[in-house]
């Protein structure tokens, strides 16, 4: 959890967005990844009910959004600016994949403000807008159909920023997870299986095939737990009793 | 570009989806990442105009979607199943982050069918549904607001699957990019700057500060191109001419 606080220094800038629903979707994407700052350059409709509907719990991001008239205003004070684009550009700076760009942006965000710029849903960013950025950024995509929805592109970019800001650590533990069984308990379980299989006639000790090693492999792979060992041993003991004879 | 073909063996399964718009958004997300197979378990409304509108060019994914009545049917034939979930589960298999899960899924997809299951927008997956999967998968998110839109979650998962299937290689080259200037040309450019600065009085050779090393550092960092060297040298020559004297 190195530097999630740096996410506060990231501006997500949407330029000339046509559909307010996408602004709401972007706000939600921003908040899910722990970012907060949305800047809108000349949105066609904002504020708007569609934006609120799609934001779904991230209205605070919309309420705090800055609306400005030019991309230059949106970028004031930024030390590193990336422009998300789906197509190759003439004479731009070298293109970065989003994962690499996210590392660079979060490194810069330790010391200053950074921005990610997204263009209009249909026409994307103009060449003049891309020229204001330090690097064009692309999301790896299907070359035959690379048209990500605007909010979906914001979601991927913010996801990569979050992962670049801080390693998420180990996944959350599963509640109700038991203690792993000690080695000797697993040994006794396997022996119990073997005994019960022989008694039942299922396993012929003269030609044991690979039954027992396979069982052992299964339990090892599953990292069998204490309680599961107890359940299986109880079951084997029950199988060993002749049926229909209560005590 | 190792194994993008394996993406054809990935099923994206949406269980009990309420909003057809999300089905359309998921179809678009799937196609942008080069996947194709959508399975719908008891969608509330499908087919639907909202799904088509949000699919925006990915209608083929909707047309080819399978609609089934139970998650078991959706998973028939799958050798590895992951369930995307936003919360901890009792007694489930160990949780994987989506990036690690994507590697495991694409490794399994070399030899068989795999599936990713997404639950209802509000209630998520039931415990019974998660129990049918080999692993619960989580997307790292803001712990205070982890509610990703369904189509946005599908977008991130499919993005990670695409990257797990194949390294995207170098980013696309910038068209119009020039040839890097050879070392000696940069040397001559820096000398030219120095000369012009001295002649103009801007640089005092007796106390040069660090002007020239800084210029050299700037050009090195920019990997200055041949044509840019030519432009700057032309400019310097013009500055060296006394003004107002044609020829």
UniProtKB/TrEMBL annotation, chains A, B:
Purpose of the protein: Catalyzes the formation of 2'O-methylated cytidine (Cm32) or 2'O-methylated uridine (Um32) at position 32 in tRNA.
Enzyme nomenclature, EC number: 2.1.1.200
Enzymatic reactions: uridine(32) in tRNA + S-adenosyl-L-methionine = 2'-O-methyluridine(32) in tRNA + S-adenosyl-L-homocysteine + H(+); cytidine(32) in tRNA + S-adenosyl-L-methionine = 2'-O-methylcytidine(32) in tRNA + S-adenosyl-L-homocysteine + H(+)
Gene from which this protein is expressed: trmJ
Alphabetical list of SUPFAM superfamilies matching this protein: alpha/beta knot
Record's subcellular location: Cytoplasm
Any one Pfam family match given in the protein's UniProt record, by short name: SpoU_methylase
The name this protein goes by in its record: tRNA (cytidine/uridine-2'-O-)-methyltransferase TrmJ
Family, as annotated: Belongs to the class IV-like SAM-binding methyltransferase superfamily. RNA methyltransferase TrmH family.
Molecular function terms from GO: RNA binding; tRNA (cytidine(32)/uridine(32)-2'-O)-methyltransferase activity
Gene Ontology cellular-component annotations: cytosol
Iron in keyword set: no
Domain called tRNA/rRNA methyltransferase SpoU type: residue spans: 10-159
Gene3D superfamilies, per database record: 1.10.8.590, 3.40.1280.10
Alphabetically ordered keywords of this record: Cytoplasm, Methyltransferase, S-adenosyl-L-methionine, Transferase, tRNA processing
Domain of life, source organism: Bacteria
GO terms for biological process, alphabetical: tRNA nucleoside ribose methylation
Keyword Protease: no
Assembly and interaction partners: Homodimer.
